[in-house]
Design goal:
It contains 25 helices and 11 strands. It folds into 4 domains: 229 residues, no CATH class; 74 residues, Alpha-Beta Plaits (2-Layer Sandwich), CATH 3.30.70.20; 75 residues, Alpha-Beta Plaits, CATH 3.30.70; 80 residues, Alpha-Beta Plaits. With 528 residues, it is mainly alpha-helical.
Length: 528
């Protein structure tokens, strides 16, 4: 019983880490004083650091915090998965809701499946060598931040606002909760309604990962997580290991049954060190104080400083990695390369894929972007959204600006502040005013002056450039009655337009706007 307190201490630390993750997510809003801190969690991923450095062709110092995690894992084992990882915390919470089928996976099948995560890791790294950034799609830290930013936080925001909108009109109750709502509105809730295009695609992968726990606890961590595979290799060398006092152990097998990673076997006496995530569930389960975690000398199976031979360490076991898994992963990677590269030659012709200001050139951007969603969360106008297949499979979950939903604010550089990988370079507000992300053009068949012969100057009024990039010339056109009328016809000065998209956003034409923004590289239709 005396060891159980360590389980609750570990759980408290996990809760604190999760709260820190959520707090950084919520505080990712204007104003931001130091953006580095907000991208801290993705920078802790060794998997992201290695893969992104490979695709970018340079060692990215932004991921130096991942080396600290590696060093601690080499010393203390795979603690990161049970303590720091926000996806792990989310799975631990969802496991209490998701009913697991007893005996869904036999122990033999469970142990054999551990090698799959090494194959996933191999796929990720081989694709990186081929210049394909797939790590950001499946890395747990990137996946967590993306899902929380574009799915869970907007859901919480909408639900909270609806709740208070229903309660505030109630005379007595509304007066009592009014200050609370004001506090939440100032610190937690978003000023504008948040709706992310393609959020369903993000939610699908996130829910898929969580629902895998129907088959086994922490299914993702056991069999699929590429970061977990790296930490398992490091954790297998850790000096903090589970030990069993055989004089106290009654072989009740509770520890083996309750182990989240199925890392315990052989009647509770053996542990696969690389699979053990130091969750200390076995400490809590053992009613006889037979289990403890002790510092063991490297490459030794004896308890450090142990006087009694009855105390033994968990039997060491080789990592569940095989040459066959690595070869299979490499072959799968080679087979996937054409799928990711599909439409790559046409990528520059898409035109409508507008990247955030300060983004690297498209190929470099795709190599460096880790698909974390931080830029989307911080955007004050809800202009940035996750792409799905609009720019091919290689561009999935990367940020794209959709002007009809939101525009790029002239005096805002928040997305450049929070990007953890450098895919979006930092800009000063003075530089932002002249940063070109696209070019506007008119669809004459939809534009009110061009198509209907009626005056409309909305696009010119909202244009933020000092010298308006939208001008007018008087000319004669036919109105809907077939009469010739003299109106001001708008056109774009392409050399001045920065592609912010506010003209497209504010265009009064219903449905598709009559003025649209395309990337500078795309062929812009003539505006006449």
């Amino acid at each position: 019983m005396k060891h159980r307190r360590w389980f609750y201490i570990r759980a408290a630390v996990q809760l604190c880490c999760w709260l820190a993750f959520v707090a950084l997510l919520i505080l990712m809003r204007d104003p931001i004083e130091e953006g580095y801190l907000y991208g801290l969690f993705p920078r802790l991923s060794l998997h992201l650091g290695i893969a992104t450095s490979i695709t970018a062709g340079a060692v990215l110092t932004a991921f130096l915090p991942a080396l600290a995690v590696l060093a601690l894992s080499l010393a203390f084992g795979r603690f990161f998965c049970s303590t720091v990882c926000p996806l792990g915390a989310t799975m631990d919470a969802s496991d209490k809701i998701i009913a697991r089928r007893k005996g869904a996976l036999k122990p033999e099948t469970s142990r054999a499946g551990r090698g799959i995560k090494y194959m996933v890791l191999a796929v990720s790294l081989v694709l990186a060598l081929a210049g394909v950034q797939a790590a950001g799609i499946i890395d747990p830290l990137s996946l967590s931040l993306r899902a929380y930013s574009t799915v869970l936080y907007p859901f919480f925001d909408h639900l909270t606002k609806l709740l208070f909108e229903g309660l505030l009109p109630i005379p007595v109750l509304g007066t009592a909760i009014g200050p609370l709502y004001s506090l939440l509105a100032d610190t937690v809730l978003d000023f504008n309604p948040i709706v992310f295009h393609n959020a369903g695609g993000v939610m699908f992968l996130f829910l898929f990962v969580l629902l895998l726990s129907v088959a086994a606890r922490r299914f993702w961590c056991r069999y699929l997580c590429p970061l977990g595979a790296l930490l398992a290799l490091a954790g297998g060398l850790g000096v903090l290991r589970r030990t069993v006092d055989v004089s106290k152990c009654v072989n009740c097998l509770r520890c083996e049954r309750d182990c989240r990673m199925n890392a315990i076997h052989d009647r509770g006496l053996a542990t696969v060190h690389g699979e053990c995530i130091q969750c200390l569930e076995c400490l809590k389960s053992c009613e006889y104080d037979a289990i403890s975690f002790c510092v063991i000398r490297p490459f030794s199976t004896e308890r450090a400083g142990a006087a009694e031979p009855a105390s033994i360490t968990a039997v060491p076991e080789r990592p569940s990695i095989s040459r066959r898994a690595l070869i299979a992963g490499s072959v799968a990677s080679i087979a996937l390369i054409p799928a990711f590269r599909l439409n790559a030659a046409r990528r520059a012709d898409f035109g409508e894929i507008i990247r955030p200001p300060g983004s690297l050139p498209e190929d470099e951007f795709l190599d460096a972007c880790i698909r974390c969603g931080a830029c989307m969360k911080v955007c004050p106008t809800n202009a940035l959204h996750p792409a799905l297949l609009e720019s091919g499979l290689e561009g999935i979950y990367t940020p794209r600006l959709i002007p009809r939903i939101g525009w790029c604010e002239k005096n805002c550089v928040l997305c450049t502040e929070v990007c953890p990988s450098g895919a979006i370079t930092r800009l000063r507000i003075a530089d932002k005013e002249t940063t070109v992300i696209g070019t506007a053009y008119f669809i004459k068949d939809l534009c009110i002056p061009w198509a209907e012969g009626r005056e409309c100057i909305v696009c010119e009024e909202v244009c933020p450039t000092v010298t308006k990039s939208i001008k007018f010339r008087e000319d004669t056109v036919l109105n809907k009655k077939g009469e010739s009328v003299l109106v001001k016809l708008p056109y774009v000065l392409e050399d001045i337009c920065i592609g912010c998209g506010i003209c497209e956003n504010k265009c009064p034409v219903r449905g598709s706007a009559a003025i649209r923004v395309r990337t500078r590289k795309a062929e812009v239709p003539a505006a006449g």
